[in-house]
Amino acid sequence: MPLIPEEPQIHESVPGPRATPAAGRTASTPRPVPGPGPRPAPPRGAPAASARPGKPGPSRGPAAAPPPQRTAPKSSAPGAAAAAEAQLQLIPAPADGAVDAADEAVDLLLDSGRDPSEVLVLTTGERHPWAAHELSFGEASYWAQHDAGDDVFYAAADADRATGRPVVVVAVNGGSDEAVAKALPAAMARAGALLVVCGDPQRINALIGASA
């Protein structure tokens, strides 16, 4: 299904610190959806449900009906629920601005309450500057940070060792059409709740249609 650029609102509030946003950005990007919208309050006396145990529920403020979200139909089979609930969000950006757009998306996600450990950032072209820097100290140190799983992790889209997380952000900052067409479904498979794709909407929709 083609991704349609939108400018959704942030609904969820879950604790999570964030490093200082990168400086020098001049262009703003649409605000991404940080995750599923508010859940209805449980009946009186019933235990509160939470997609992530131990985390607070909906955001502060008066309760309101959640806006329509582009969510895959839920399956009645318990084992398929997690894979069926991932949302798709497209943030328009040129190839040379996709990494900046991804960084802004991560800032907004974490500012809205997403925990850093829940976010994986992938690039289809050149490595993210953070990944390139950390790899300069060796792959063992780099992947040790991935395995620790306590902060946002940045990897190449074709890095098989990068495991899934609740939120996956993809910067389509290069790569062949064939590579990107493979990377997008693979990123969706890694995303537990939300997939944010930053890049040229026309190219991304064409590649998604070609890989469908």
Could you give a short description of this structure?
The protein has 212 residues and is α/β, with parallel strands linked by helices.
Please name the defining characteristics of this protein.
6 helices; alpha/beta; 28% helix; 5 strands
What does the secondary structure layout of this molecule look like, with pairings?
Blueprint: H1 81-84, E1 87-92, H2 98-111, E2 119-123, H3 129-135, H4 139-148, E3 153-156, E4 165-171, H5 177-190, E5 191-199, H6 201-211
Parallel strand pairs: 1-5, 2-3, 2-4, 4-5
Helix pairs in contact: 5-6
Structure write-up:
It is a single chain. With 212 residues, the chain is an alpha/beta fold. Helices cover 28% and strands 15% of the residues. The chain contains 6 helices and 5 strands. Strands 1-5-4-2-3 form a 5-stranded parallel β-sheet. Helix 5 crosses helix 6. About 34% of the residues have low confidence.
Envelope shape: globular
Number of helical segments with 4 or more residues: 6
Given helix and strand content, the structural type is: alpha/beta
Please tell me the overall pLDDT. 74
The proportion of strand residues reads 5-15%
Spatial ordering of strands, largest sheet: 1-5-4-2-3
Pick out the low-confidence regions: 6-29, 36-83
